[in-house]
């Protein structure tokens, strides 16, 4: 899938989709025996998408993926299924692409230090996307597991450092963790820093209250962000959709914050992008499974 996705094109398509007429249903989910399954549906630009994805805590011990799912794309005109692929990689790409779009709309143009807290799947996708669309002078990674963090840092020409050093030095901070205690401390952030928090929903908590006080406002990807994450509560919020359309604005403090909890329209953008790239290369027909 990595050879199919072109980050800049995906970001442009995501912005176009957010500006255009689209629809998305509220996310529905169920839990059973410690596992979680959710369904996300959206429509726009002539397509419907449906993502069914689950989180299975027992899988790592079985050497199976923690997160498993499927992403489907249908033509809205006749219901023809045109794409049927595993959901894990598209989810990583679309989350990072949305963060890149948010950073751009917040005014970041590149340069300085990129700091990534976490060394898992989302951390890697963010490094792949952000380093392909922005120029950075230095890359820092902070992680609980030394070996994993050092390996990820080396992969992108960076180095592993302590979390506090990362927060003090970084111009852009990406928080991609499962921590239930804040990993981004507002008292340590440099003036003018950009923060993107993409960790899992509640009970995960990545931002402390001082981050929100310093920002004064927060860009979010969903109208229901506060219902899913405490990071988005207790502060004025504006959706990325409305910010991109220019129908809402933030009164920013001295740091800029974007919070992502995931939204079906991002899955739609990823599915359309992948389908059109595959179709353009002749790798998929309108009824293929890839």
From TrEMBL:
The keyword Transport does not apply. The gene is ocd. It comes from Aeropyrum pernix (strain ATCC 700893 / DSM 11879 / JCM 9820 / NBRC 100138 / K1). SUPFAM superfamilies: NAD(P)-binding Rossmann-fold domains. Its EC number is 4.3.1.12. This is Ornithine cyclodeaminase. PANTHER family: KETIMINE REDUCTASE MU-CRYSTALLIN. InterPro entries: NAD(P)-bd_dom_sf (IPR036291), ODC_Mu_crystall (IPR003462), ODC_N (IPR023401). The keyword Ion transport does not apply. GO terms for molecular function: ornithine cyclodeaminase activity. It is an enzyme of class 4 (lyase). The lineage of its organism: Archaea, Thermoproteota, Thermoprotei, Desulfurococcales, Desulfurococcaceae. One of its GO terms (cellular component) is cytoplasm. Keywords: Lyase.
